[in-house]
Amino acid sequence: MRKPTAIALEAVALVAALFVGVVSSSAVTSHSATTSPVSNHDVGLFEDLQYLTGPELDTRLDEYKALGVQWARFQLIWANVQRAGPTSFDWGPYDELIPKLLQRGIHPLGVIDTTPPWAARFGGCGEDTCGPADASQYAAFAQSAATRYEGKVGAWELWNEENTATFWKPSPDPMVYTAAVKAAYPAIKQGDPNVIVLTGGVAPSATSGGDYSPPDWLAGIYANGGQGFFDAVGWHPYTYAAFPGNGDPNTAWGQMITAHDTMTSYGDGNKQIWSTEFGAPVMGDGSLSKPDQAAYIAQGIDLWRTYTWAGPMVVYQLRDTGTDPSNRENWFGLERFDGSHRPSYDTVQQRTGGAVTPPPTTTPPPTTTTTVPPTTTTTAPTTTTKAPPTTTPPPTTTTTVPPTTTTTAPTTTTKAPPTTTPPLTTTTTPPTPALQPIYAAPSFPWQDWLDWLWTVYQLLAAYR
Q: Residue 2 pLDDT more than 90?
């Protein structure tokens, strides 16, 4: 049985949301006609970039630029920015991150989520992933963010996977979530009238154990009066180990097709669905082989681009977050933990038009240039034989240049911030036909052997 205090808090949240919605209805109506669709050829990446700073952040964002992505999704964590109280703000990580993204021609996509300890939470919930019990508090923070980064952030996403208890504690509630959306939407528009506002990307799930399936969650938003309080719908159409578009209506991808039909029935057929997370792990439950991971992502991007109602597709994620074989979340990367590329990296780069660059760990240092003995008639850059100190190398080896000097940064200087330049299109380079897997061979297969050996070592160590 729900506690009376929890019910009372929900009532307060709903009343606040209705009040904000009524007084701001004219702003909502006028904006809905000015939000332009974003190209379904746009590709993005999602990582917790807000925790990187200085040279480490610069290096990572340079990799985003080299890969050729147009969007970068990150979390704007309310519980961190206002940890000390309702009048305190620590914008430091975002004041560094957002301008650096724009300098590289990448559109920021911020996810406004979590609830700080001082804000109202349901049922005494003690974690940052608790849903906000007071919609007006969430809206006030969202407006502060939109105002601070007006004209800089391309889109705001209202929470992440809020249809599951993992990210909306103590348990998801479409009525309470919709109250937060109805309060936050006009508040954000007041801070930045031209920014795109998405509903939170929903996770694959069934309606059971307190969680909601994505279609049931979207239906709950409409049932609770959420229509008119979002510009696009967020979705996470993961299907691994099955491939996307396999005809199964019960996968998150199949449910997404049904969801757009629901939107159309409410008169929202002209609004987009954004895939704000998509990818597959190469280890753990539902994992794919490395070539199959590449084929899975290729098929997903290619099929996505055939949907006229689709917005950008955001891939999770650029680099593995660890090497623990028991943690599936470590293994979604287009790159291994050491920064070397998997076949899926090339798959994405082929579809974004990014500059082809070698993996960072495969470039030998300049001091390792090899020389060839006088008796050698052929040059071999990989030879481990060293000539005597007094031996002059053959003329053909004097022009050897370290590989790092032959690669240049991608030329994306013509890109502009989100509000001044239309989204990047790829009409000049037709994508690979949909449903045609691409099995790109890895550049350095020995890295896969190292992955396998490391996994065996970890498993053996666990049973010692």
A: no
